[in-house]
Amino acid sequence: MVADLYGGWADAAGTRQWRQDTLVNVFSVGKGMTATCTAQLIGQRRLDADAPVARYWPEFGAAGKAGITVRQLLSHQAGLPALRGRMPAGSQFDWAAMTAALAAEQPWWPPGSAHGYHVNTFGFLAGELIRRATGRSIGALLREEVAQPLGADIHIGLPSGEHQRVAEFLWAGEWADGPVIADLHDDRLMRHHAYANPPGLSGFGVVNTPAWRAGEIPSANAHATAAGVARLYAALAGGGAIGGVRVVDAGALAAATAEQVYGEDLVLQRPSRFGLGFQLAHPERRFGPGMRAFGHFGAGGSVGFCDPDAGIAFGYVTSQMGPRWQNPRNRALIDAVYASI
Predict the structure, then answer these.
(1) How far is CA 55 from CA 34, 35, 50, in A?
(2) Residues 313-326 pLDDT 10s
(3) Backbone φ, ψ for residue 253 (5° rounding)
């Protein structure tokens, strides 16, 4: 640890100071945690990146998905960024309902022909793959095989005894995509439902509730401290190990951070570049100056990444909504880190 900065308020009323151990919802930063878990399993040969997902999750083979590989699923090529049919409010807390709906869903595009950011479905898809391969939930695997060995304060599914450490997330205004719109078709429906089906899938309206904090919604509800995020990426910057603790095989990590897709993203409608779950640096979206950096941004500007060439691991968390990656707060801090070396 070189620098550990924290400050501000942990609640909207300004009555609780932000402390060193304050947790906060870090949204899609959790996808990097999930990608670490899948890389670990691939390194242990408990998952095969080129095997069909249906080998581990037979029901997934329905609706033309029998040929989708683990590699395609983890690199946002599976064509499952959203569910077409409206799901009841609160369905994001029902793991069986969400994964059954995804198993039955027809892809929005021919799998492997393009990629599109699986904004909220990624966590359910990868998490169910993990559950089928190991018999453990993503939250349990992350806790037992990654967080505890590293001493990293990161969680997917936060125990109730830890809720008092969580900062209130300030999400002002209305959901950006507006109310439910019944007559959207095709691509517009796909993009709308990626964020808002079921209602509250992205956290809007429920992010500060006990149910949200305790649930396992891997793409959106990871909770962490900045130091916890940085600790995870310190291990990844070292090829999967730090301080004598190895959480990912070095070869499996190298494969997970190799480019799988790069180009126009059918959901984000801008270029994106992914490995096996990790966001990779590219000219339109850098972490720092190094092009081998990898990690994941989250809503509000939270981010975790590492730059193996520079020997840097970085975590930033916030309780305020704002831009994910063109964010003046995380950008200024990242620039300051690189300016100091």
Answers:
(1) 20, 19, 11
(2) 999 999 998 766 67
(3) -65, -40
Please name each of the domains of the chain with its CATH number.
24-168+214-339 (3.40.710.10)
How big is the chain, counted in residues? 341
Per the structure block, which two tokens stand in for 125?
Answer: 């898809």
Q: Kindly state the tokens that stand for 40.
A: 């670990």
28, 91, 137, 272: which one is catalytic? 28
pTM, 2 dp? 0.95
Nearest-5° Cα angle at 176, 263 to 26: 70
Structure tokens at 239: 């090829």
165-187: pLDDT as tens digits: 999 999 876 544 444 455 546 88
Q: How far is CA 254 from CA 94, 130, 168, 315, in A?
A: 34, 20, 36, 21
| Amino acid at site 53 | V
* 28 catalytically annotated: yes
